[in-house]
Amino acid sequence: EEAIFLRKKITLLRAFSLLIGSMVGSGIFISPKGVLKNSGTVGFSLVVWFACGLLSMFGALSYAELGTRITKSGGHYIYILETLGPLPSFLFLWAEFFAIRPANSAVVSLAFGRYMLEPFFAPCAAPVPAVKLVSLLGYYMVLTLNSWSVTWSARLQTALSVVKLLALALIIVPGMMLLAQGHTENFQDAFDGESLVLDKLPLAFYAGMFAYSGWFQASFVREELVRPERNIPLAVIISVITVIVGYMLTNVSYYTVLGTQDVLASPAVAVSFVQRAFKSLISVVPVLVALSCFGTMNGGIFTFSRTLFVASREGQWPPLFSMIHIRRHTPLPAVMLMFPLVTAMVCVGDIYHLMNFFSFSRWLFIGLATLGLIVHRHRHPELHSPFKVPLFVPVSFTIICLFTVAMSFYSDPVSISIGCTMVLSGFPVYYIIIHRQIFLPFFPTLSDYLTHKLQLLLEVVQQEIKTF
């Protein structure tokens, strides 16, 4: 009785909550160890944190302009498709589906499981099988919610954004109080040059940028945003500034209370911090951190399902995944598709190896997307954009991203080679399936039959109107 399409339900507050909820997740609670380990000292690690925040702001501003120039949802995928062409966009989609997104979701869900169980097993570490079981249960809950309702998943994101900021405040306040009392001993020799290892710096940046990653999430739901020309730039600027300030103060608090060796030795930095500084809240903060990770999982599923939805609509993914549930108005098939890969990575994965594994591919394609902004400006100088950044912003961001990606081959050649192989494996698939459209004689018939049966089972149909 009514048109089937994705409604415009993302207001400025919900866009801000989506960005805050995606950025402030597991990263600030697990990445300090990775940044410190690969930067060498407290001082250099703080420099890396600030540089990652500044770099994230450059990327967020570039994506805000792309979001006002290109009116489709889909984030990195649609920007690369519209500016650089179908081959690089398909390679991104291939790497994102088989490597980047499931690894990222596995990292966040494992952090959720670890922090959720930490109060029950302290001072011992939680058993690995139990962590993985709770991680999967949390991921499946978010998956179900996103399949059920856009409105409720957006409301959950808003509520959990408040929880995330509260968790940061509970870490920042006691650390600042100790610092004000003169406890600066952990900052002695903060910039000891002998501890700096240059070839490990890309891995430090990967860990830091992982904590900030999420500033691009608004671009994935562009078609569902209310007044996107105004709300995208406002949401990204306010949210990134908020997170930079929060992260810098949080790291200073960590080092004030714990010190270098304690941070490096801790499997869960935030829990170790609370054990030392705020024993009365020993069971509260880990739960707040776990809820923070829960919000990041929710934001990741919410946005990546839109990438698959748009890719299917553009003809680079099976047509089933551009369909919408007839009553719920959610992209149900696209939401459910990540279920098996994330499950597999949670069962076999380790947080820090997974982080290096997907960071290479992610930052390669983000760099290509901002390169696409430069290309788009050159090709369409007549196009009016309601939001425009100085040219040096996307140029600087692109150069730094691609340089870091190149340098990472020296830092972690095994993980990066696996990520590179995953990207390159998409070439023959693109050539056979998309470019040449070479199919086995029975394949189209079988594909249509399976699509029809799944469509009936899931109660989904094609979008009836285009909202871009």
From TrEMBL:
ATP-binding as UniProt keyword: no
Keywords linked to the UniProt accession: Membrane, Transmembrane, Transmembrane helix
Positions in coiled-coil regions: none
Predominant location category: membrane
Organism domain of life: Eukaryota
Family annotation (InterPro entries): AA/rel_permease1, AminoAcid_Transporter
Listed name of the protein: XCT protein
Organism, scientific name: Neopipo cinnamomea
Species classification: Eukaryota, Metazoa, Chordata, Craniata, Vertebrata
